[in-house]
Give the backbone structure.
Amino acid sequence: MKYPLTLADIHSVKRHAKRLKIKFPELPHTKRLDMASVEVVGVRSYHELNCNFEKVINQNLDIPNGPRSVSHCLYCDYRFAADYKPDQKSHREIHERFMEVSEQLNYRPGTYAERERMKQDGYHQADHAEQIEDRVDGLLMITRAWFDRSFHDAVSDGYWKRHPSFEKYVAMMVPHLETMYPAIAVIVTERYGRMLGLIPKGSTYWPMG
Ligand SMILES: [Zn+2]
């Protein structure tokens, strides 16, 4: 069997099952899903495929001990009751959105903890690095943390395809960066440009419209 399973694998099994309808119109759809799972991924049934895929989805769960504890997915940052079916379903939905983005763009926006780390390191570098190049990198690291938060929302809420790229986002944030680190912001502007009024003053979120 192919491992690790991707969302693209699940989609191609479903597509293949639809095509099998032409050859086997008399079979129930569940049987065609089973056949497609065998042919495309090499598992014994669709049920087995689904179980294996759930393992992939839940492989980064942090599950604390104790009743009524809240689990945390370190991949998509979703928090939920892992023993409660409707919550599992919501997690899977959100998690699949992040898998889709990661498979298409080869990029997963940082979780809250990862972003805090980026900001901390970024500020330290922007304030203390000896070389101007490293200070620029520090400021870009801070901006990356904000970008990831904005992009994270766009993935969760399903409008990531319209969200600006990191490069464009930096240009939109330049007016704000100038108030923080004017000298470094000059260099950032040379590289990324400067776009006014696209992100509201005082905000780091790209407004989805
Ligand atoms: Zn998740």
Q: What stands out?
A: The chain has three domains: 1-57, 59-108, 112-192.
